[in-house]
Amino acid sequence: MTVTPSRSPRADGDAAGGTAVPSAQPAARPGEAAGKSTLESRESRASGGFLARAALVTAVLSVAGSLLGLVRDQALARLFGAGRDTDAFLVAWTVPEFAATLLIEDGLAFALIPAFSLALARRAQGGGDPVRALVAGTLPRLSLAFVAVGVLVAALAPQLVGVLAPGLPDPGLAVGCTRLTATCVVSFGFAGYCSAALRAHRRFVAPAAIYVAYNTGIVTGMFVLGERWGVRSAAVGVAVGGFLMVAVQLPSLWKQLRRRGARPVGDVAEEPRPLGGAVVATVLLFALCRQSQVLVERFLASQLPSGAISHLNYAQKVAQMPMILSLMVCTVTFPVVARALAEGDTERARDRVQQDLALAACVVLLGTAGVVACAPQMIELFFQRGAFTAGDTAATAGVMRVYALGLLGQTLVGVLARSYFSTGRASWYPAGAMAVGIFTTSGLGALCVAPWGVYGIAAANAAGITVTALVLLAGTAGGPAGSRPRRGAHRVPRSVPLHVPGVVNELSRPVLAALVAAPAGAFAGGRFGDPTAGLAAGSLTVTAVFVLLGWALGAQGIASALRSVRSATRRLPHVRSR
User: Fold this and answer.
1) Contacts with 408 (C-beta within 8 Å, 6 or more apart), sequence order
2) Which of 125, 224, 343, 457 is the 20 to 30 Å CA partner of 320?
3) DSSP string over 178-199
4) What are 404-434's pLDDT values in tens digits?
5) pLDDT digits over 68-111, tens only?
6) Taking the CB of residue 36, how many other CB atoms lie within 10 A of it?
């Protein structure tokens, strides 16, 4: 269902971004049209500045959360090494990993943000308070579901461990940790609901701070309880950190829900608009399929010598940091795309998604080149201390370089999935694309694990996610560049329609820049024996070569990134935090 408001989407005080949707009024005279065009241009620039500042604040807090995550992994490696105990905990870690994907990052957000965006669009038209009606129709049912699934996971922990890691040397420890981490199903569910509602309201600070709170809880738990409880202390920290994620968002969400919309015209009663079962099913199935890559990896690695799961985990955590940063812009603009489609403005949605693809690709490819060039220095500097040996560093760095080959695919899947689910209706295509990728990962992993071990598993992961990205991109084909979808159309497309050849051509430019920057950075970093100096030299070389070559090739993402930084640093205090 689409809604075409009769006034600007900015009329409710929400920085909606883009140009206003035209109302059904008599044609303006030339002078009035010119004035209106100037006003819309100013609003568009102001909105772009707000999005840039919001993306910057979100990125800063997300980097802080990621750095604390790095501290968490360093503490885990220092206190417990890379052996049987950490393997057991990392099997239990599958629960929060799945819960984060299903309930915070992808699944629930893909369903709730379009629903809240539509409710906000209706409220802007003077339709009462459909936002409160949406909360009343969804939160009680979802709360019961969160609690029920959390209890079920705790009760079936022995069976889950047996399925996830049948070759684990100490399944009892993994079962105990899994029962502690099962609390994340409840806490992450509420945290994801709060995050989706706040982002739809254009409040980004509190949602971006959740991983700072989460990792603080885990690190504190390990250092306070580690000597007494061993690796179980990390599982206790996971449970505490999950509820801290909810606590940091509640004040801001409560303030938003206290606001009332305009009274409905006449005596029209508000009816709750619960999420459709098909919508929830499709987004959760997609997120479940995406996270199933971790299950495939852990299953195959459990049959390798002790430490294989840990090497995969440490490598993946560091390698994925560029992907996490690249998706920050999409976290901020997803509500913009959903709101545009709710108002029937497919043109604005398509422009936004194509800009996001160009910018996110440049960010992740710069990071990919840095990871490939400086992997040994990164792992030695971050982890090689305590129980984490030089042999662990070499194994983890090699796996990380292989993982990095799939980072562009990971980012494209993150951006493109939002273009499908921003329509607010059920779409089975993304889940099908993800299933194709899972089959690719499983098949290649089974073939490659025997001859190449963890390297074969990482290569299968990179190949599978890249296949998924290509299938998703093919499904967005929507006409040649320059053709514009009809604005205000009532038929909601399967996804935001993109010009696929143009997207591929644009992506090829930063890919070429990364292919040149990575070996240049590896050469520069390898000239130094000290890991800090090597990492600094390699990173600076990668950045300089990538930016200069990308600029020369005309990569739009680089120019967009520079404009965003300039815009973001002008009025940082104006980013809405409450």
Assistant:
1) 361, 364, 365, 368, 466, 469, 507, 511
2) 224
3) HHHHTTHHHHHHHHHHHHHHHH
4) 999 999 999 999 988 888 877 778 899 999 9
5) 888 898 888 888 876 788 888 888 888 898 888 888 887 788 88
6) 13
- Cα–Cα distance for residue pair 121/127, rounded to 1 Å: 9
Q: Which tokens sit at 129?
A: 């308070």
Tokens of 107: 């699944």
Alpha-carbon gap, residue 499 to 479, rounded angstroms: 6
Instruction: List, for residues 139-180, the tens digit of each pLDDT value.
Output: 999 999 999 999 999 999 999 888 887 877 778 888 999 999
CA distances from 331 to 197, 336, 415, 478 (A): 13, 10, 9, 23
Q: Quick check: 125 pLDDT over 80?
A: no
Band of the pLDDT at 211, cuts 50, 70, 90?
Answer: very high
> Residue 477 pairs with which residues in a beta bridge?
498
| Cβ neighbours for 191, distance < 8 A, ≥ 6 positions apart | 103, 104, 210, 242, 245, 246, 249
How is residue 121 written in tokens? Answer: 């669009």
Residue 111 main-chain phi, psi, to 5 deg: -85, -40
Average pLDDT of the residues of the chain? 80
SS (H, E, C) 359-378: HHHHHHHHHHHHHHHHHHHH
Q: Which of 192, 113, 197 is nearest to 420 (CA)?
A: 113
Tell me which residue has tokens 């160009």: 358
User: Burial letters for 300-321: b for 16+ Cβ neighbours within 10 Å, e otherwise?
Assistant: bbbebebbbbbbbbbbbbbbbb
Residue 49 has what pLDDT? 63
The Cα 539–Cα 545 span in angstroms is: 10
With both helix axes pointing from N to C terminus, report the angle between 454-474 and 308-319 in degrees, rounded to the nearest 10.
40
Q: What is the pTM of this model?
A: 0.72
Residue 48 pLDDT level (bands cut at 50, 70, 90): low
Nearest Cα residue to 91 out of 318, 293, 298: 298
Q: How many of the other CB atoms lie within 10 Å of CB of 4?
A: 18
pLDDT value, residue 249: 94
CA-CA distance, 477 to 469, in Å (whole number)? 13
Cα 315 to Cα 319: distance, rounded to the nearest angstrom:
6
Which DSSP symbol is given to 341?
H
